[in-house]
Amino acid sequence: MEKFELTILGCGSALPTTRHFASSQVLNIREKLYMIDCGEGAQLQMRRSRLKFTHLNHVFISHLHGDHCFGLIGLISTFGLLGRTAPLFVHAPSAFGPMLRSMLDFFCKGLDFTVEFCPVDTTRYGLIHEDRSVSVYSLPLCHRTECSGFLFKEKPTLPHIRRDMIDFYHIPVCEINNIKNGKDWVTEDGKTVPHGWLTTPADPPRSYAYCSDTCYLPGLGPYLQGADLLFHEATFLHEDLARARETFHTTALQAATLARDSQVKRLCIGHFSARYENESLLLKEAQSVFGHTMLARENLLIKI
């Protein structure tokens, strides 16, 4: 199975603590890295997680609060010091474009690579990036500023080749890719061997959904339906629901309810308020509704 892994770089909220870094994570899909949010310390955490800087070409910023984007200009500056030449694509709300350009002009003059800004419409669900490995969609969220979540849908892979059948029919290596793409094999005596005999079905495509800072939105359910992994902020316990509503955040119970109703396979909660020293209370609350819940933590690797 091709690699599809999530690494949590930071899962704290706005107030710095000694327990957590600010929000950031990296999704590895077939050795291509996609960063989601870039709070302070993200590049340090990439080093600790042994993630290759050269494999990162896309950064997705959910919204323009500092704990989700203050680390980006430092990361770009480091790329310059490392001699990067490949372009870097930054996907973020449109208001970030002029600010990013201003910071680049002041702090990052003379880069040997381009930083391409790709504005995200935070008001609608829509395709914002596509390559050979994945399609990325924006998820409209509701926070104190324009905010978007992201849904990563893996592209289907080719069927698996049956090595025993390849050996039995003495099929040359140069024909294997054609067979994976649906071609039958014709033997020397004219017998047609159907493609289906020579392959087994491909692994089903996987999906990952990231819901950054937002109030509880049951309407997200259709977009999240059946996702292999959902990361959802769970800043507060439900006993602090009034504070969650005031700040446009979600409780652990609400995040778990959304996961259950969306029939996702697993839930990871994060963006923890600094007020909680015992985050197992958040986990316990979420698991009371949705058992397949885990706590985010720095450098946690989740295989999807």
Short description:
This protein is α/β, with parallel strands linked by helices and 304 residues long.
Your description of this structure?
The structure is a single chain. The chain is an alpha/beta fold and about 300 residues long. The protein has two domains: about 260 residues, Metallo-beta-lactamase, Chain A, CATH 3.60.15.10; about 40 residues, no CATH class. It has eleven helices and 18 strands. The strands form four sheets. It has a seven-stranded mixed sheet. Strands 7-8-9-14-15-16-17 form a seven-stranded mixed sheet, with helices on one face. Helix 11 links the parallel strand 16 and strand 17. Helix 10 packs parallel to helix 11. The longest helix is centred in the middle third of the chain and has 12 residues. About 40% of the residues are buried.
Give the fraction of residues assigned to helices: 25-40%
Radius of gyration: 22 Å
Number of helices: 11
CATH architectural category of the largest domain? 4-Layer Sandwich
N-to-C span: 10 Å
Q: Which whole number gives the mean pLDDT? A: 96
The spatial strand order of the largest sheet comes to 6-5-4-3-2-1-18
Order of helices and strands: EEEHEHHEHEEEEEHHEEHEEHEHHEHEE
What's the count of strands? Answer: 18
Report the sheet-strand fraction: 25-35%
List low-confidence stretches: none
